[in-house]
Amino acid sequence: EVQLVESGGGLVQPGGSLRLSCAASGFTFSSCKFHWVRQAPGKGLEWVAYIDTSGNTIYYADSVKGRFTISRDSAKNSLYLQVTSLRAEDTAVYYCARECGEVYNFDLWGQGTLVTVSS
Amino acid sequence: QSALTQPASVSGSPGQSISISCTGTSSDVGGYDYVSWYQQHPGKAPKLMIYDVSKRPSGVSNRFSGSKSGNTASLTVSGLQAEDEADYYCCSWAGSRFYVFGFGTKVTVV
Q: Which residues of A touch B45 (CB under 8 A)?
């Protein structure tokens, strides 16, 4: 089955860190670029980070630059997001999303993992 | 990143057609033909419904169509069905800002 499955979310105190994971299956992981997109409770979607097929080209939204790190491991068919210096406003469901080929859309999403930043 | 402007809610009766607008700027919607639309049911992941302004992925009903004029894109749902009740988000490639999403529109089938 073609799918993305996120994990690693949880409750963390302000200033804390987490490592989110996204396991891919059913397709050629190395051929696709990936993104993290988040959604605060009751709010809209916000693009967070991008990584290309090689892992050499990476971009971040200004709101997370310097605090979040995206990476990938093709041997494990997995995408990661290291989130540090967390703030209350980082509370959200974090989705990984796939972009395969020379396209500008996200054709496959995971079910999301919830990160709650609270003391 | 500034979000794209969408109406907060749109409603229609079964069988009717509705349209959702998505307004940006010449730096995003107006500058590229890379507008996509996503449907999200409560508690579920978003689903790609339209890409490249007006293209439908395999498996998406032809009741969904997209268009663009200037800095405004639109999603039209024809023959509205109960299962279409969901939140809809537009998204545009924005060059150096990468991707920007709309605030979202809640579609209600009354």
A: 95, 109-112
Q: Are strands A32-39 and A45-51 parallel, antiparallel or unpaired?
A: antiparallel
Q: What is the pLDDT of residue A101?
A: 83
Identify the DSSP state of B8.
S
In this structure, what DSSP letter does residue A102 have?
S
- Judged by a CB distance cut-off of 8 A, whether residue B105 touches chain A is no
Q: Check if the beta carbon of residue B22 is closer than 8 Å to that of residue B4.
A: yes
Residue A28 has pLDDT above 60, yes or no: yes
In B54-73, the residues whose Cβ lies within 8 Å of chain A are: 57
How would residue B57 be classed by pLDDT, with cut points 50, 70 and 90?
Answer: very high
The Cα–Cα gap between B57 and B45 comes to 16
